[in-house]
Amino acid sequence: MVNSGYKPITLQEAIEIRSRTNAIPYAGGTDLMVKNIPDADYLFINDIDELKQITQDDKYIRIGAAVTFTQALDSDLVPPLMKEAVSRIAAPAIRNAGTFGGNLGNASDKADSVLAGFALDGCVRLISADGERTIPLEDFCVRRGVTTLGDDELIAEILLPKEKCALPYYYKKIGGRNALAISRVAFAGAYEVRDGVIKAISATVVGEGKFARYREVEATLIGQTVDEVSANAAAYAERFIEKMTFTRGRVSAEYRKTVVTNLFKDYFTSLK
Ligand SMILES: Cc1cc2nc3c(=O)[nH]c(=O)nc-3n(C[C@H](O)[C@H](O)[C@H](O)COP(=O)(O)OP(=O)(O)OC[C@H]3O[C@@H](n4cnc5c(N)ncnc54)[C@H](O)[C@@H]3O)c2cc1C
């Protein structure tokens, strides 16, 4: 039950309320309604125009925290990998209400927009009455249920580096069915190949209890030819798999490991 709520219309008002109350930020409510926290006070942020913009500057595509997935799908600025990931979230009713800030703030290891953000080297801009900070998503997401969001902070924007947004990508989501499916496993990667040689590559997976990039393993692919990586896809996949811990969730650890291994192999044989 909603005990009481604040409904600011500017970001300044919102961070001032955040600094002096324990009100819980509430965007689309698609996660919070399910949690139904008893006697909660909410800080409704979905009327704040500053948080509902998709913009760009020299370096980044900037997605406001209260931008809905439907809004992102209609935008020419949002990169194809992010669009593909959010197009697979739930069903239209959830995509009409669910937001990027909520997907990140919920700290689920199944969050589809966060997976794409990881693969694109995304950052998050956090704001409080004391100032703001911009940090990589990897430094924000600690593990399932835990982030580095301060008690007085709000997520303001997700920032996606433009040079990564333009790269070819790979995305697969494995769920129990096509629509309304939370990921059992999902995989996203982006890469750059010039003259048959890998110049940049990212790979990230959901379903491990946390999001992770294995940058030291990714680095071993840089400078290799696409032909070499494709011909030895199983061996390259194994380099990542041996860094991961597979545990039972909605599916068994064995199932997860087999699917993730196959996705790595499929990714490496699809590079062009
Ligand atoms: C039926 C169903 C299916 C779903 N399927 C998927 C799916 O396929 N993939 C997927 O990724 N998710 C799925 N979800 C989860 C959910 O829809 C998403 O996580 C969504 O992005 C949450 O956004 P929201 O705006 O509704 O968040 P809210 O419920 O408003 O908030 C979620 C959390 O984020 C915090 N928060 C929100 N905004 C901010 C902010 N600006 N600053 C700080 N903290 C903030 C809130 O305090 C809360 O802890 C599903 C949910 C349902 C109910």
Topology readout:
Elements: E1 2-6, H1 11-20, E2 24-26, H2 32-35, E3 40-44, E4 54-56, E5 60-64, H3 69-73, H4 80-87, H5 92-97, H6 100-105, H7 112-119, E6 123-128, E7 131-136, H8 137-140, E8 141-143, E9 146-147, E10 154-161, H9 162-165, E11 169-174, E12 185-194, E13 197-206, H10 215-219, H11 226-231, H12 233-241, H13 253-270
Parallel strand pairs: 1-3, 2-3
Antiparallel strand pairs: 4-5, 5-10, 6-7, 6-10, 8-9, 11-12, 12-13
Bound molecules: flavin-adenine dinucleotide.
Backbone structural class? alpha+beta
Bound molecules: flavin-adenine dinucleotide
What's the CATH architecture of the largest domain? Answer: 2-Layer Sandwich
Point out poorly predicted stretches: none
Overall geometry: globular
Helix fraction by DSSP (H/I, runs of at least 4): 25-40%
* End-to-end CA span: 52 Å
Please provide the count of β strands: 13
| Mean pLDDT across all amino acids | 94
Whole-number radius of gyration?
A: 19 Å
- Work out the count of structural domains: 2
Order of helices and strands: EHEHEEEHHHHHEEHEEEHEEEHHHH
Q: Main sheet: which strands, in order across?
A: 4-5-10-6-7
Residues in β-strands, percent? 25-35%
CATH topology of the largest domain: Uridine Diphospho-n-acetylenolpyruvylglucosamine Reductase, domain 3
* CATH level 1 name of the largest domain: Alpha Beta
What are the salient characteristics of this protein?
272 residues; alpha+beta; Uridine Diphospho-n-acetylenolpyruvylglucosamine Reductase, domain 3; Enolase-like, domain 1; 5-stranded antiparallel beta sheet; globular
